[in-house]
Design a protein that fits this description.
By secondary structure, the protein is of the alpha/beta class. The protein is built from nine helices and eight strands. Strand 4 and strand 5 form a beta hairpin. InterPro entries: MetalloPept_cat_dom_sf.
């Protein structure tokens, strides 16, 4: 199995071309690469954020509540400690920042950045390897081509033995987000990741289009989130469980993968995830 650092190579290329500005978040309406799943991804992300926010808000009261309340409190408390460091300096500040970021995502349906989401990027790129011309990005509205000196696409990664999960390109103020959904065969919705028994499942392996989009939209919404540094790892964006634990008391709240996994784990309310895998008890 490929390492998570390899699986989670995320590329952000910023260029100065001007494309039409899209209002809000759009799931590839021109070529319909997200199919029927695109319409549910945003709802899924918002639901994840709302659930995680509610668990965080209710944690203090649940500590003194009934058995169900105790369960929910310890799920939140242990997971926050593992991922963000509840016992390290300024833990309250990290809690507040994580809660604020999650609330922003919970409000996505009402306050949307300009983002164009692709679930299969193969129809948006063209290359001319035989004559040395650069890879080109195709404007999905008018098919205008824009040269790139180098670009790694979802298909390129797959053909060379890698597994690119997602990447972003900012053109003229619009974020083009490719979640490589078709190439990686991830299910679209979070509900498709919830079989009756997930005991022993590894949290970082729980991927759906919505989980990937949650991660990517954090980069779009919050400028202070760490970016990839040569495949991931400190001092940049971290993807592997080991690296996430290593930065928890340092800059975990500014690592998109950390917040994504935190919200994801809280969505599986029957399980503890403090070890990185699903268990029924502490």
């Amino acid at each position: 199995m490929a390492s998570l650092a390899r699986l989670q190579i995320l590329i952000c290329v910023v260029v100065g071309f001007v494309l039409p500005t899209y209002a809000g978040i759009i799931f590839a309406p021109v070529l319909n690469t997200c199919g029927s799943g695109g319409g549910t991804v945003l709802q899924d992300v918002v639901s994840m954020a709302k659930a995680a926010g509610a668990y965080m808000d209710n944690a203090p009261g649940n500590q003194k509540g009934d058995a169900k309340g105790h369960w929910d409190f310890y799920r939140v408390a242990t997971l926050f400690d593992v991922i963000f460091g509840a016992q390290d300096g300024n833990s309250q500040g990290r809690w507040n920042e994580v809660r604020s970021n999650i609330q922003t995502i919970a409000n996505l349906e009402n306050t949307q950045p300009n983002a164009y989401v692709l679930c299969d990027d193969s129809k948006f790129w063209t290359a001319f390897p035989s004559n040395g011309q650069p890879t080109q990005f195709k404007n999905p509205v008018d098919n205008t081509l824009y040269d790139y000196p180098s670009a790694v696409t979802c298909g390129d990664s797959t053909s060379t033995g890698g597994s690119l999960i997602a990447y972003r390109i900012n053109i003229g103020g619009t974020e083009f987000i490719s979640i490589c959904g078709v190439q990686n065969s991830h299910p679209a919705q979070l509900s498709e990741l919830q079989p009756k028994n997930v005991e022993g499942a590894l949290l970082p392996d729980m991927l759906s289009w919505s989980v990937v989009f949650f991660h990517e939209i954090m980069h779009v919404l919050f400028a202070d989130q760490r970016g990839d540094v040569v495949g991931g790892g400190p001092p940049g964006e971290c993807y592997s469980w080991t690296d996430i634990l290593s930065i928890r008391g340092d800059y975990g709240e500014k690592n998109p993968r950390s917040t994504t996994l935190f919200a994801l784990a809280l969505s599986f309310e029957e399980w503890f995830w403090h070890s990185g895998s699903a268990v029924k008890s502490l």
